Amino acid sequence: MPDIAHYTHVPNRHWGRWLAVAIIILLIAGLARAFAVGQIEWDFVGRFFTAPAIMTGLYNTLWMTLGAMALGITLGVITAVMRMSPNPVLQGVAMGYTWLFRGTPVILQLLLWFNLALIFPRLGFGEFSVRTVDVMTPALAALLGLGINQGAYTSEVIRAGMLSVDTGQYEAAKAIGMTRLRALRRIIFPQAMRVVIPPLGNEFIGMVKLTSLASVIQFAEILHAAQNIYYANSRVIELLIVAAIWYLIIVSILTPLQMLLERRFARGAGGAR
């Protein structure tokens, strides 16, 4: 065996890493300089950051996110259960719903809901009907469009969580006389949550940003509020920066909350890291 004692140990220099760091620093410095010397009136950013219209838009963004996700989760759970049902009719309805609302753009669905009066001028029957244009406000159209679309995606997330549970759990619940719904509630869903929470948390954060699409139907969320202001004062970049900062703040708050929730449901599953 050759003698290697006289060799000098040279650490790996990782030149590629240093080069990558240098390139990233240069890009960040160039971006910072562009914003610093660009024609951006930062005083306007601070002045309109807490403007009443922006605060109203922030409130609308938050409640629309919660409402759309609540509707989406409800529809997603129902659709996932239908998809896992042995009944072929329920399976077909669930598959059709998922195919339809995942296969069309969200902005198209928002526009269809907002213009529903062109198809159904009135909703209801006889004396108990109302004009659709009076009912289908921008808020309701946004809630239905975002929530129903989200339900199609959430159903696949829930179904993936249900499929991750061992089939023996289903058989054991059936053996002790549990009904299918009770087994889902007491055994399957609690175990599926470990798989469901991470993608569902990402969907929730994505919904915060997805509400910006509702500006096309005049729903007064953050982006729409910023647009209304810069239409009046022509400070386009400044108001867009205000909207961007608020979106980043919301996401920065939700991200650690999602991590804590994931850690809680990962306890005892070897995934708490």
**Percent of residues in helical segments?**
over 70%
Give me the number of helical elements.
Answer: 11
Major sheet attributes: 2 strands, antiparallel
Q: Which fold does the CATH topology refer to?
A: MetI-like fold
Number of strands: 2
Q: What's the number of structural domains?
A: 1
- Average per-residue pLDDT, rounded, comes to 86
Distance between the termini: 43 Å
Please give the CATH architecture.
Orthogonal Bundle
> Which structural class do you get from the secondary structure elements?
mainly alpha
Strand order of the largest sheet: 1-2
Element order: H for helix, E for strand: HHHHHEEHHHHHH
Q: Using only CA atoms, what is the Rg?
A: 26 Å
Weakly predicted, low-confidence segments: none
What would you call the shape? flat
Beta-strand percentage range: under 5%
The CATH homologous superfamily is termed: MetI-like
- CATH domain class name: Mainly Alpha
Summarize the structure in words:
By secondary structure, this protein is mostly helical. It has a single domain, classed as MetI-like fold (Orthogonal Bundle). Helices cover 73% and strands 1% of the residues. The chain is built from 11 helices and 2 strands. The chain has a two-stranded antiparallel ribbon. A hairpin with a 6-residue loop joins strand 1 and strand 2. The longest helix is centred in the N-terminal third of the chain and has 32 residues. The chain is flat. The mean pLDDT is 86.
